[in-house]
Amino acid sequence: MHEEKAAQRHEQESQDNEPYEKVSFSEFTDALKNYAKQKQHQGFALLDLINSELMLIKKSVFVTVFAGMTAFAIGGFCWILLNIALGYFAHLAGAPVSIILVVMLVINATIGVVIFKQAKSAFNYISATRIIQLMKRLNE
Question: Tell me: the pLDDT tens digits for 77-89?
């Protein structure tokens, strides 16, 4: 009885020492082919995702540019109307035309300089170097 138990333990230990079941060559090649197909499909899915993101970016840029141009046109038109209204009411109040023109020129020039300074300071932040440095850090 003791010998039977020892034989069973030996069989159990030999089975535990074989972590993988025996696979035929054809099964191995089929598994490799399936793995390659899965990786190929995964790559195509990734390319489709990247393409979708690029299309979304392209459409977003188009919409942003169009909306910006529209806002600029409407804002410019409203600004011209505001200048006309201010000049007209100043003329009705009895101010000479030359004074009205000089005051409107000074106001518009001042606002233009302020807006130019804001745009120039904002332009300093438009740079791809930060993104490139971030990508380099991620790859390290």
Answer: 999 999 999 999 9
Residues 109/83, Cβ–Cβ less than 8 Å:
no
C-alpha span between 79 and 99 (Å, rounded): 20
State if pTM tops 0.85. no
Three-state SS string over the chain comes to CHHHHHHHHHHHHHHHHCCCCCCCHHHHHHHHHHHHHHHHHHHHHHHHHHHHHHHHHHHHHHHHHHHHHHHHHHHHHHHHHHHHHHHHHHHHCCCCHHHHHHHHHHHHHHHHHHHHHHHHHHHCCCCCHHHHHHHHHHHC
